[in-house]
Every structure is written in C-alpha cells, then in structure tokens.
Amino acid sequence: MNLKTGDKVVIIAGKDKGKEGKITKTLRSENKVIVEGVNVVKKHIKPNGQNEGSIVEMEAPIHASNVMILDPKTKKRTRIGHTVNKKGVKVRVSKKSNEALD
C-alpha cells in the first residue's frame, strides 16, 4: 500500500464517490484506510457502569483500492510511482506531474 497518514485522497468507488479527505489512519494488515468525513457510520455504544448507552457517528475503514491520492500540483487524482532523488533516498512521486509527494 502506497498511502500514508496525512495524504489527501479522493474516493473513487462506493457510496461516497467523489468526496475528498485526509487519511487519519492506515490499517496495513487489512489494506484499508480511514478518511476523515468519509464512510461515516452510526455505532451503538452499550451502557456500562460509568456511562449510559448512546449512538455515535464514526468513520469506518474503506479499502485502499477505492481511494486515489490527489496530485499536489494539478489537484486531480493520480497514481503513485517511486523514484530515487539526488540524495539517494527513495521517494513517492505523482505520475501526472512527476512531483514528489513526501
């Protein structure tokens, strides 16, 4: 998975198609990401001794194949490539503008 926490992405499939947001968490073992304001679901919290039950809205994970990163230059969705910069460090680059993403 080429996505990292803090990346600005656009949803390309599902009920929230077209929405944009920032990745707040990556779940690498499941190949999923959590994007703020996207895929919001209601979760029922069971009452216990300290607090009473309630219904809270939270972001559910979305599969990494359903999001694409936004190009920082053109503000359009793009694929991610890798290259080695002048210092010899491997960096992620946008395929559209060939600009570094890190």
Task: Describe the 3D structure.
The chain has 102 residues and is an all-beta fold. The chain is built from no helices and ten strands. A six-stranded antiparallel sheet has the order 6-3-2-1-7-8, with no helix packed on it. A two-stranded antiparallel ribbon has the order 4-5. It has a two-stranded antiparallel ribbon with strand order 9-10. β2 (20-27) and β3 form a beta hairpin. It is elongated and about 60 Å long.
Counting DSSP H or I runs of 4 or more residues, the number of helices is 0
Mean pLDDT: 93
The percent range for strand residues is over 45%
Helix/strand-derived category reads mainly beta
Shape: elongated
> What proportion of the residues is helical, as a percent range?
under 10%
How far the N terminus sits from the C terminus, by CA atoms, comes to 15 Å
Q: What's the arrangement of strands in the largest beta sheet?
A: 6-3-2-1-7-8
How many extended strands?
10
Indicate how many domains the architecture comprises.
2
Largest sheet: 6 strands, antiparallel
Secondary-structure element order, as H and E?
Answer: EEEEEEEEEE
What is the level 1 CATH name of the largest domain?
A: Mainly Beta
Architecture per CATH nomenclature, i.e. the level-2 architecture of the largest domain? Roll
Uncertain runs with pLDDT below 50, 5 residues or more?
Answer: none
What's the alpha carbon Rg, rounded to whole Å?
17 Å
CATH topology of the largest domain, which one? SH3 type barrels
